[in-house]
Amino acid sequence: MKKQANLSCVMLVQQLEPEFWIGWDDVIIEEAHNGNIRPLIEELVKRFEKDGCEVNEAYGILHDKDLISVWNQDEMKNVEELKAKHIHILIKFGKGDTLNSLAVKAGVAPQYLEKAKSGRYGYDNLLSYLVHAKDQDKHQYFPDEVVTVSGEEYTSVYNRRMETWVRGRATKEAKATDLSVDYLVSEILAGKLTKSQVLLTNEFYRVYALHKRKINDAFDTAGESKSYQTIADLDAGNFKKTTLFIMAESGAGKTVLSKKIISILQSVALKKMEQRWDYCLTASNNAFDEYNGQDIIFLDDIRGDSLSVSDWLKLLDPYTISPISARYHNKMGSAKAIIITSTNTPSEFFSIAKGNFHEDLGQFFRRIDLLINIEDDKFHLSKPEKAPPASTQFPYVIKPPSHYFHFDGTYHKNKALDMVTKTVIRNMQWNKKKPVTQPAKANVTDHLKK
């Protein structure tokens, strides 16, 4: 059997219940449980020195604010609870003993004594752990909560070493992220994490900061995979895209309504299909630079000339997904729902699309499922319809749009939201299994009607 080495330091960690302290006076343990831990530390030092050890330093702290994650069966999720109250006592020896011998002297089982890790910073790491100085994700105790029985006062040690400990914390966090990044990448590829979740979660954000390229590559790959799956579903007739055009004066609530619609669609998708829908809020210029396969594209206050006629027609086509122009490389416009907001009417909006030279505006109108016009907290809804055949008596005259918007009715906000939700559910076929069939191609345009 390998001979045990004498230890130069040891950390005792134990709950403050009498049954865990062999041969101890219950009064000392109960006093420590109530907050006065000095008598317990002093007694431990006496026990060690009585049996031949030399104690150079002795520090202790009561940990009563540590948290632990436990499964809550009623809520069906992990919740944080307080750990049992426990004490950490750090002893540094001038002359030590073996782990088993120290455990006998201390009156605790050997597993409750922690050896310092090998290396020059082993004892220093134990010193810092008393207050969790290098563990930002744990409760941060104050240095004056540490009781000093022997050696330099802990507050002095803390102020002298804290700068080094902070650097050590950064190193420790960096090493921890090496383990966490693989977990993050796995969750991203499985579609369980969005970029906003990563950036808004402190733990994930630190990992992202140190492994930005690897994580962004995972998001790009996940987005590419999602886009091609969407294309396959669309080609199979499993759904058709939904396009909403919301028009109103500035400040009338276009953006607020759009975000409410997005929130509802995300909830419905999760409830009905267990799908986590994400959305992309685009910029006015280079609108698709940030798009990466999100289920909803939110084109907030975008101008009609942000895209070409060709790109608008491809993006809004309910039965086809095609590449859309972007600054660095083309993107697949593979969203399931598209929301456009503007202060202009659809006619004014699409008439200034790049490359529009007397284009039939009806071909844009027929691709829009619902036109929502907000006025004085009233919501006027219109739907596209095919216009009557235009007269051919004067062929040199510009023809009116082949489709126009037929006024459907005026509704309060909740009713309008309900109609929008039902439109998306119908287009996504969440209530039926019959595939969407593509209608026969027709020439299409529009007058703007209410």
Provide a descriptive summary of the structure in words:
This protein is α/β, with parallel strands linked by helices. 37% of the residues lie in helices and 21% in strands. The chain contains 13 helices and 16 strands. The strands form 4 sheets. A 7-stranded mixed β-sheet has the order 9-10-13-8-14-15-16. Strands 6-1-5-2-7 form a 5-stranded antiparallel β-sheet, sandwiched between helices. A hairpin with a 2-residue loop joins strand 14 and strand 15. Helix 5 crosses helix 7, helix 5 packs parallel to helix 8 and helix 9 (254-273) crosses helix 13 (413-428). The longest helix is centred in the middle third of the chain and has 36 residues, at 154-189. The chain is elongated and about 110 Å long. InterPro entries: Helicase_SF3_ssDNA/RNA_vir, P-loop_NTPase, Plasmid_rep_OBD. This is AAA family ATPase. Residues 55-151 form the Plasmid replication protein origin binding domain.
